[in-house]
Fold these 2 entries.
Entry 1:
Amino acid sequence: MPARALFVATLLAVATGAAWAQLQYPHTAPEAPPPGVPERPPPGITAPGSATPSEKSQLWGALAFTADGSWATAWSKPSKAEAESNVAVACAKFGRGECEIVSFDGQYCAALATYIGAHSRHRYKLSYSGGGLSVSQAQAAAMERCNNDTRARGRCQLRTTVCGDGR
């Protein structure tokens, strides 16, 4: 199959599978910070050598994942569409089922936590994403969501973390 046809097929599969994917792969899109975290960092506060908040908001990142925890990431992309298409193509190449995509601007990070195992005679493949303004916030959010699922019984594993600005 030509690369362009694969790309179009992947985008159609992602677009039409969104409702199913949200039920199958519970996640939190990192579009809003967790409670108690400021919406944006205070003006003028940046680490030496880092991008300013306005420069970061012009960058995009994305995380694509399957229920079994296979994942693809993109960061420092100039547009949301480019970040999403990069991870959609990479995730589809795994051939591990439907891919869920989470995208975010450069000020945010996203993490993925997964549980694969059995409980009450059922096998589960569960993946949860979480987001925040820092790597640690994103990791904590993903792990909390995953471990709060009674099927996982607190046995989730962190898979990856990505920030929109590449930090």
Note: The helical segments are 3-16, 18-24, 53-56, 80-94, 135-148.
Entry 2:
Amino acid sequence: MSSEVQAMTLAELAEQSGLPGRTVRFYIARGLVPGPTKAGRGARYDGAHLERLRQIAQWQGQGLSLLEITHRLAGPESPPPTLVPTSWWQYQVAEDVVVSVRGEVAPWRLKQIKTQIMRMTSGLSREEKEDTL
């Protein structure tokens, strides 16, 4: 089938696969889908990319997680998938809103995140006050 499908852009690949472009990029970053056949501006994808995305969708439809799919794609000789625990910070910004931040984030990034959380908290409390008036 890959010979039937001509080179396509990310947008075309996303449309044909029924997935958002963001998801396709995520799968590439996770190693589930190979990178484009031509990288950079004007990146191109082919039928093999489309086939892989369809296979992933089929496995997900069968209830497999991305970790299990990664293991399947790696082949039977690969070690079984392991779950790695991660720590998370949680910030309650409103009565009904909690923001989770990965615990191992760099200190400079955590400072940026906290600044944005404070803005969000302020904005949400301002909206609550306006709604009660």
Note: The chain has two domains: 10-74, 88-132.
